[in-house]
């Protein structure tokens, strides 16, 4: 069975990538909710995260990684550094922005940029939460 699944993943890399991103984002949302001791899991939020990962993040990251490999092929140190810099300067802000704005749209918020304005820079620079 594993051999079959691996063969299908190689045969259909795009759908495999989208499926993995959706699964990882969904699991991450559920874990985040549990870690913050929410008494009840917000399945609507989890559904929105899964839809956003499936429709946006999985696709854009798949295409981005293909582009990076074409522009800077292989694992030579210079090419790896170029890929990392491009990731941090281009796709990371795009992904973070897509998440906050996309979630606001799906939640029906009037100002879809409010959460983005509030959280973008702290998320982008990976601000550590103050200790209690």
SSE blueprint and pairings:
Blueprint: H1 2-11, H2 13-35, H3 43-71, H4 77-106, H5 114-124
Protein architecture, described:
- It is a single chain.
- By secondary structure, the protein is mainly α.
- It has one domain (about 1-125).
- It has helices at about 1-10, 15-35, 45-70, 75-105, 115-125.
- Helix 2 crosses helix 3 (about 45-70) and helix 4 packs antiparallel against helix 5.
- The longest helix has 30 residues, at about 75-105.
- The chain is globular, with a radius of gyration of 17 Å.
- The N and C termini lie far apart (about 50 Å).
Work out the count of structural domains: 1
Query: How large is the count of helical segments?
Result: 5
Question: Based on DSSP secondary structure assignment, what is the total number of beta strands?
Answer: 0
- The secondary-structure element order is HHHHH
What structural category do the secondary elements indicate? mainly alpha
Q: Quaternary status of these chains?
A: single chain
Share of β-strand residues: under 5%
Q: What coarse outline follows from CA principal-axis ratios? A: globular
Q: Termini separation (Å)?
A: 48 Å
Q: Average pLDDT, to the nearest integer?
A: 91
Q: How many whole angstroms does the radius of gyration measure?
A: 17 Å
Flag low-confidence runs. none
Percent of residues in helices: over 70%
Main sheet record: none
């Amino acid at each position: 069975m594993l051999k079959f699944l691996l063969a299908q993943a190689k045969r259909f890399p795009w759908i495999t990538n989208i499926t993995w991103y959706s699964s990882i984002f969904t699991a991450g949302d559920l874990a985040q909710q549990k870690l913050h001791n929410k008494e009840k899991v917000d399945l609507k939020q989890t559904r929105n995260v899964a839809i956003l990962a499936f429709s946006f993040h999985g696709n854009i990251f798949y295409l981005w990684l293909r582009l990076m490999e074409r522009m800077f092929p292989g694992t030579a140190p210079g090419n790896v550094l170029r890929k990392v810099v491009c990731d941090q300067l281009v796709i990371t802000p795009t992904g973070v922005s897509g998440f906050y704005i996309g979630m606001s749209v799906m939640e029906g918020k009037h100002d879809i940029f409010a959460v983005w304005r509030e959280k973008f820079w702290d998320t982008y620079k990976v601000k550590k939460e103050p200790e209690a």
